[in-house]
Each structure stands twice: as structure tokens, then as C-alpha cells.
Model the fold of this input.
Amino acid sequence: MKRDNDEFIAYKENLEKFEYYTQLTQEDKAKYFEMSKKPLKFSLTLAKKHPFYWLYHVCGMKPRDYQFKMLDTMHKYGKVAGVTSRQIGKSVMVAGFAFWAAYNNIYPSGIDKKTTVLIVSHTEDAAKKLLQEVSNFVSMADERMAIYSRNTKFHTKEYFTEKMTKKPTQYKLEWVGGKIIVLPPTDKVRGNSASVLIIDEADFLKADDPDYFFNSVALPTTTATSGKVFLWSTPKGVPSFFYNIIRPLNDEPLEGWNRIWFPWTIVGNDKMLDYVWTVRDQYIKKGDEMDFKIEYEASFLSGKHTYFNPELIDEAVDDDLREQYDAHGPVTIGLDFGDTHSRTVLTVVQYNKERNEVTLLWYKEFPAGYNNGDIPTFIDSLRSRYLIKEIVVDDCVGGKTAIELLRRRGYNLRLFQFKRDKHEYYEYMKVAFANKRIKMYRALDVIAQLKALESHETMQGNIQIRKPNGGRDDIVDAFMMACSPFIKPEQFRKRYVL
Done:
């Protein structure tokens, strides 16, 4: 499909209304222009002052203005999380930054006072490919240096390659000043010490538990060095450590982090824009517009299988509401039991009969592996804050002890059979959102899990409702259970399977 200029301009202007996207400032453009000037005399000392200068004047590759912004932000700050469209060259910039930092020993650390750049990519093949990108920059720099040193006694065709102190491997390049290590997201990362930790495609890590890997394996590699941490990824659209750092529902990222957010339209290259516009048309024709928004507009959605309409979830959020640690009037608790790997979650809602409306007041997540037998004591502590009318409790093997203790203590329990009732009540919840019968404060994790929940049709024509791969649904399960006594409409039936 040919890109109609008027249609594209209208599309781009509408996209740019989203204030979370990063804009190139006049200062950025002026700095980009200044660094793009050819120096009067070539100098490696001058080139090492900034990664853009290094890539352009040493390697002979001129990054685009938005890529300059990526490099400049990493140069300035200690923690950067970047959300970008596909195919805008973020991995190439990661490779270029790594070469600049390691060769020039920009961030010395450890006993040897050398720079170690540790790059983790989402798969082993991707990690090897990234190191190949670094090697490409080394070759480009060799060629460039051969030109600069022509007709001098220092002339060589492999200036940077010859300065490697060890033979390159598929996982490591090393010079006198520093080294670059690339690894997949496995336990091999543990024990490394990094001056700079870069995670490429951070939202797609092929790890058993990406959140655990980031927090307990990758991030500790920078503890002793107070190293820099850079995360880059196209969004996957499900709650994750990357999502929680970006905080797409907030004006700012997680405290201590700097955020960059680029959609595909930032490129500004006519050939690229024409290509992606054609891709967009193909996605729309296949009914995959949501996937295009994720992959190219860099939006945190869940794709074509999203169960709840994200717009209805947003409409349910009332910014006049706040977390309520206590409440007047009776409340209902939803209690979803976790296990070794999942979390036990408790949600508190209040039903307004006059408005026929359910409001989320508060929720509590317990850590994975929490002893469910301690839950009744915790609920006892809530009695001073809430008038607990009923507890809708997950009737599962892992909760038997807690259920029995709650019953002995006189609580009014409603046992929820997940295998039998989960899908039916999720459908009731969907109808309740559509009818504006559920309200909640801006509870970011709740909103994220609601938007990430997926539905799939089986070969038998039944509906499966489930969390996305790598995602969680424990908070929203507990929320649905708390709402269940109030959201069942009359004469509403449909077939469901697990």
C-alpha cells in the first residue's frame, strides 16, 4: 500500500498525542549537528569523549538523530530503560556503545581497573549475533584507521583488531582497556562483575522466570562496581520487570531510571516509512492491528488475544479514588492461593447496592512460597480496618489449612471452584466492565494484569482464558473472585473449558 502523505501525517500527529513518547529537543538536534561536523584533525582522544563521535568519526557509521539520543542518554545516565519499535537499530547502537566503552576503558572498575561490558540478549543465538555486530564495528574502525594512517609509519589495516589481548570467541572480545561479554539469560551470568550491564530485548528473555533472573542474577553483577544498567526492548505487552521499570501508565519511569520511548515514525527515512506503512496495511488486513501497535508503535498491549477491552479497563479507573486501608461499611475479600512459584493475593472490594457498582479498595500480594497457613492471622489483623462481610476463597489443596482456620474463626466463607467457575465469572466480569459496574483506583499491577489476560479458542470452539506466556494473573484472579458475588447477570450462560 502506497503511503498517502496526508493520511500518514494525520496518523503521525495522532500518534504523537501520546505524551509518553520521547521527543527530540532543540538541544538534542543542536548537539547532533555539532558532533556531526568533520574535525579539523582526527584524534582518538577526542573521539573517545562520546559514543556518537566514536561511531561516526572512528567507525564511519553516522547514527541517525534518534540513535544519537539513545547513545547520549546512555552516556549521561546510570540507568536507562528504552522502549522502541522494531527495526530502528537499537541492537546496533548497543553494539556500538559497547565497543566504545570497552576499548577506551570508559568505566574502569574492579581490581584491574578495566571496563567490563556485559550484554545479555534474549536467546543464545541473539547474544552471538550481537557480538558479531560489535565485530562489524571493529572491522569498520580498522578500515577507517587504515585510511587515517596511510603514508605514515603507524599504518596498519587492523589497528583495533591487533590491539586485542586475547583471541576473540563467540562470547567475548577483549582489549587492554576492557572487554565485552555476551551471554544468554542463564545462570552463566551469575558471578560476573560488570561496569556496564546491557540487556537487549529485555521484555523477551528466554528464562524460566525473567523477573527472578533480572533481579537476582543480572542486576547483582553491577553491585560491586556501581555499574550502569541499560535495558532496551520492543514491548511484549505483559507485566514484567521491564514493564514495572518503564511504568507505561505513569508520567515517569521507576524512580532512579531514565526512560526513552520511540515509535517507528521517529525514523524519518522515506524508504523505511514506506516499508512500515505497507507492513501496517498487511497487519490490519489480517486483523492483527494490535500486534502492529505492540511491535511498531511500541505500545504495551497484549495483542489480538487480549481478553478485556483495554479502553474499558482505562474507563474503570477513577483518579478521584485512592487506596483505602480502611472503609466504612461491609467489604468482601477475594483470596487466591499461590504456591512455590506463584503468589497468594488478597483483594478487598466494596459493593454499592444503590449504584449496583463494585469498587476495588485495596490488595495485598504475598511473596512466592509464602506459608498459606499464616493467611488467617493476617486477615485477623484486617478486622480493625474493615468490616469483613464475606471471603471468597480459592478452594484448592494448597489452601485447605487456611480455609479450615478461617472457618474455625467464624468468617463467612464462599468457596470458589476454579475448575468449574473461573471462565464463567470472568465473562461476567467482562460484562460488568462494559456496563461501567466496576471501579478502581489507579492500581498499576491490577490494570496491567487485566490488560494482559488472554483468550484463545480451542479446536472444539470453546474459550480458554489464561495469562500470557511469562505473565501473571494472580492479582486479577483474586479481584475477580472478590467481585463474583455481585457481577452475575440474570439469564447469562456460555460454555467454557480450562
